[in-house]
Amino acid sequence: MNGGLRPFNDLEKVNMEQIVEQADKAGKLFARKIKINQIRRFLDGVRRIENRLKGESDFNTVKDQVVLLRPMLAYAAGRDNRNDMKELMNFLDPAIKSGSRSKDNFKKLLRLIEGIVAYHRFYGGGN
Question: Mean pLDDT in the chain?
Fold first, then answer.
């Protein structure tokens, strides 16, 4: 994977420092390739799940929605003729799988995506 990105296969074993480090690398890499709106749409879907989870005590009530983020991202990647979204999908897909295992993993997934958006903007990524 370009830019030294390492997909997170198990978010349980990852600390916030590692998430921020990879979000920085991903944001820098994708700032040159992907429009911010493409990533923000995906982030908005993750935030909707987060909001629903706030009202629920049981993570299992939203687990399926987390799993369904995978085809949502695949759809966006399929529409991209340059394969840049596919590269983002290859980076995020293992993290989404892991994020569907527990509430703590989901929170780490959310922080990863928020970090990518923040660093994307920092490195000059635009619309």
Answer: 91
Higher model confidence: residue 76 or residue 96? 96
Tell me the C-alpha distance between 26 and 112, whole Å. 10
Q: In this model, does residue 80 exceed pLDDT 70?
A: yes
Integer Cα distance of 62 and 64 in angstroms: 6
The set of residues, in sequence order, having a beta carbon less than 8 Å from that of 53 and lying 6+ positions away, is 59, 61, 62, 103, 106
pTM of the model: 0.91
| Residue 2 and residue 87 in contact, taking contact as beta carbons nearer than 8 Å | yes
Identity of the amino acid at 64? D
Tokens 């399926």 identify what position? 64
Range 76-98 average pLDDT: 90
Q: Phi/psi zone of residue 35: left (φ > 0), alpha (ψ -120 to 50 degrees), beta?
A: beta
